[in-house]
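Sample pair:
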Amino acid sequence: MEQSHRDPLFVAQEAICFYPISTIYNSCPRYLFYALLLASCVSRWTGWLADVFLGTAATYAGVAAIQTFILVADPSKSQDPGPVTIPRVSNTSSLWSAFPQLVTDTNQVMVQPGALELDSDAVMAIVVTGYLVFLPLQCWSRILSHQRARNVLFYIWNILMLAGSICALVYAPKLNETPIQYMFCYPDLPPLGETSSDGWHGSWRTSTWNTSVWDMFSNITLWSQLGDTCFNPCMNTSQILREQRSLQIWIGASDEISNPHRFWNKVIYSRRYIYSLIILCVILNCLLLTFKFLPFRSRIPSSQVVIIWRQRKSIWNSFKEELREATTEHQASDTPKREEGSQPQQKRSAWHCIRRFLTVRFWNAFLHVVVDMMILCGILFSMIVSPFTVIAFVAWIEWCIYNDGPSQEHPQQVGQWAYLVSIGLLVISAAILTLKYRLATTKELDIEIDKVKEHLGDLQKRRDARSQPETAAPMLPQHDNVE
């Protein structure tokens, strides 16, 4: 520590240690996922095409959801911090040109190895988008409600996306908790802007971080074993589902984002707005699920906007008719009282108007109409909020991912465009299978007819077996006809 300001033994500068976004979550697969969800909404009236698009998107998002479960269940353990004394460098030093994030005017830094898991933003983009698309799909798509098995699969995917979204949103704040990382270098050997980890050797850390750093630069033989020009304590970190050698260290220029906290502090209010929209969509989603599965006899015929629009007049008339019948229940019994009573006509009329709204039947009808109106408003409001939320969230999370750092692969590499080619081949295969009867020979059609007849016989037996207890059931609820 006796070096001069011009020739320190080593210098320290800030750096970002991160595990880059996995190849499967890079830009091309993510954009393809968004396109598949959009295609599922556009092709909702078709059967086979919507199955291909939505099935592929669901499997891709399911992988991301499972990764969020693993990240939350087994987070990386933070190591204990330790102080490292460094040679003091003046703020006016000429080393700024070679070390853009140079630490100056201090004799000590606090070292706590840690690394950013950039997959957290990518998986959050996938699972949350998959969950938000559930609202417009269940309000617009009729294909998903035709078969119970298809409906069950759709809701299982919705539950998986909701669980993955919760885990992703819980894990996301851990990026802000990552401490600032430091790298220690010879002043004559500046590092590259971005380097990869060659792994970690236990011999590099002798005892404390302070002793390890000073021993590294005091012993040229030990320094030559680094394989790099700088000593990076963050290489000592590990992350589940990651190879330690994939860890990268990035040094931003003076005009770039070099501190991971800097960007998040700028968009803290945007994060609140996005989270508020997501919570609103969850509430609307729960409202629609309540409408479908609770034993409540609603006058809303369906959760699909098209059906509601076609039957809008009958729905409105049923609301008015139910309230009219509830308010006129006691009108006949009140007429004799008005004739025999001794009170003035004005007071009797006022009491009659008030009494109509104090009956149990009126309040039951009123609450029934209110619940139906809430369901109707929830369905209509979801059509406005959910598309806006999807667009706003995708734009926000993609901007966050863009500021996380460079991609691991570029679109022209096979690891990126391979997903698009596989989807194209899958669509071609599904299209050919839909034309199998037109391409089949006469013998193949005869075989298919025999199979269909056999299958039809099995379905008829299942139908007859289920209809037997239903034939005896109508004799039991005779009290319903008494009313």
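Confidence is low (pLDDT under 50) at residues 1-5, 254-268, 337-343, 475-483.
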